[in-house]
Amino acid sequence: MEKSYLPTQTSIERDWYIVDAADQRLGRLASEIANVLRGKNKPEFTPHMDTGDFVIVVNAEKVVVTGKKRTQKLYRRHSGRPGGMKTETFAKLQDRLPERIVEHAVKGMLPKNSLGKQLFTKLKVYAGGDHPHSAQQPQELKIQTIPGATN
């Protein structure tokens, strides 16, 4: 009887990729990053295993959204106390913590279980162009989003 191929954790090669988020659309950028984190770009992809790579995102402060999302999109967080809901628009959160916008978008595209939490730890987001992961020699990952006018 033939068996399906199942990769072992030691046989999976983990690469490091760097993505420049400057002038990239948020959703399209996040979906490509989520695919790399899950390992869907590899031939040995297995849905219940961590076969993905590490992703470094730089220039998170320069990510763009279209339409009126800049003023109308809301980010919510709750302190856990009664009446502890805090809301912020995209523009305010981008001024305060631009990394959180990309992290929030990518996390929403990962599985909602312990595997998703494990995959999320392989995402490193930085507001500026600098990152402390040069020792890992990350390869540049080109993400093609729709060119044209940004609103």
Automatic annotation (TrEMBL):
<dbReference type="InterPro" id="IPR036899">
    <property type="entry name" value="Ribosomal_uL13_sf"/>
</dbReference>
<dbReference type="GO" id="GO:0003735">
    <property type="term" value="F:structural constituent of ribosome"/>
</dbReference>
<dbReference type="InterPro" id="IPR023563">
    <property type="entry name" value="Ribosomal_uL13_CS"/>
</dbReference>
<comment type="subunit">
    <text>Part of the 50S ribosomal subunit.</text>
</comment>
<dbReference type="GO" id="GO:0022625">
    <property type="term" value="C:cytosolic large ribosomal subunit"/>
</dbReference>
<comment type="function">
    <text>This protein is one of the early assembly proteins of the 50S ribosomal subunit, although it is not seen to bind rRNA by itself. It is important during the early stages of 50S assembly.</text>
</comment>
<keyword id="KW-0689">Ribosomal protein</keyword>
<keyword id="KW-0687">Ribonucleoprotein</keyword>
<dbReference type="InterPro" id="IPR005823">
    <property type="entry name" value="Ribosomal_uL13_bac-type"/>
</dbReference>
<dbReference type="GO" id="GO:0017148">
    <property type="term" value="P:negative regulation of translation"/>
</dbReference>
<comment type="similarity">
    <text>Belongs to the universal ribosomal protein uL13 family.</text>
</comment>
<protein>
    <recommendedName>
        <fullName>Large ribosomal subunit protein uL13</fullName>
    </recommendedName>
</protein>
<dbReference type="InterPro" id="IPR005822">
    <property type="entry name" value="Ribosomal_uL13"/>
</dbReference>
<dbReference type="Pfam" id="PF00572">
    <property type="entry name" value="Ribosomal_L13"/>
</dbReference>
<dbReference type="GO" id="GO:0003729">
    <property type="term" value="F:mRNA binding"/>
</dbReference>
<dbReference type="GO" id="GO:0006412">
    <property type="term" value="P:translation"/>
</dbReference>
<feature type="region of interest" description="Disordered">
    <location>
        <begin position="130"/>
        <end position="151"/>
    </location>
</feature>
